[in-house]
């Protein structure tokens, strides 16, 4: 029998509420993925632009479905593992955003909000994983 995942981002009262914290976070990750898709399409059509576009498209769109998988995890260990994957992909996306910024491939004002969102999402998942570690969940 499948054990329900222990999502630290939702509470028992939220489970019956379609606007739970976990649902909102999943929607935020989906919105982030949509913005990454638009950003990758705006990169220049050069060898570097195409390479970076493909890389950021992969890393920036994967956190949403990986979080969806985490929410349906078969065990607490599986949940933690999948949250680690979400954070790993967000961290990789942060690096690609910094590369785009440093190479001035897109205007700074285009990147400002997505960089901020990426940092906030990284902090959310890092804090969640820290909480799970404190609870000695591996």
Describe it.
The chain is mainly α and 138 residues long. It has helices at 21-42, 47-61, 63-71, 76-102, 108-134. The protein has a single domain (20-134), classed as de novo design (two linked rop proteins) (Up-down Bundle), CATH 1.20.1440.60. The chain is built from five helices and no strands. α1 (21-42) runs antiparallel to α2, α1 runs antiparallel to α5 and α4 (76-102) runs antiparallel to α5. The longest helix has 27 residues, at 76-102.
Could you give a short description of this structure?
With 138 residues, the protein is mainly alpha-helical. The protein is built from five helices and no strands. The protein has one domain: 23S rRNA-intervening sequence (de novo design (two linked rop proteins), Up-down Bundle), CATH 1.20.1440.
The Cα radius of gyration reads 16 Å
User: What is the H level of CATH, i.e. the homologous superfamily?
Assistant: 23S rRNA-intervening sequence
CATH class reads Mainly Alpha
Unreliable spans = 1-15
What can be said about the biggest beta sheet?
A: none
Q: How much helical structure, as a percent, in the residues?
A: over 70%
């Amino acid at each position: 029998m499948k054990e329900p995942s222990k999502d630290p981002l939702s509470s028992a009262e939220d489970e019956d509420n379609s606007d739970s914290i976990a649902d909102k976070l999943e929607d935020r990750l989906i919105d982030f993925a949509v913005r990454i898709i638009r950003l990758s399409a705006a990169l220049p059509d050069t060898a570097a632009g195409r390479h970076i576009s493909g890389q950021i498209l992969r890393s920036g769109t994967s956190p949403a479905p990986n979080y969806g998988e985490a929410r349906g995890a078969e065990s607490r260990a599986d949940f933690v593992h999948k949250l680690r994957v979400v954070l790993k992909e967000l961290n990789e996306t942060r690096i690609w955003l910094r590369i785009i910024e440093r190479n001035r491939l897109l205007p700074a004002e285009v990147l400002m909000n997505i960089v901020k969102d990426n940092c906030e999402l990284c902090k959310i998942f890092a804090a969640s994983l820290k909480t799970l570690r404190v609870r000695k969940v591996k």
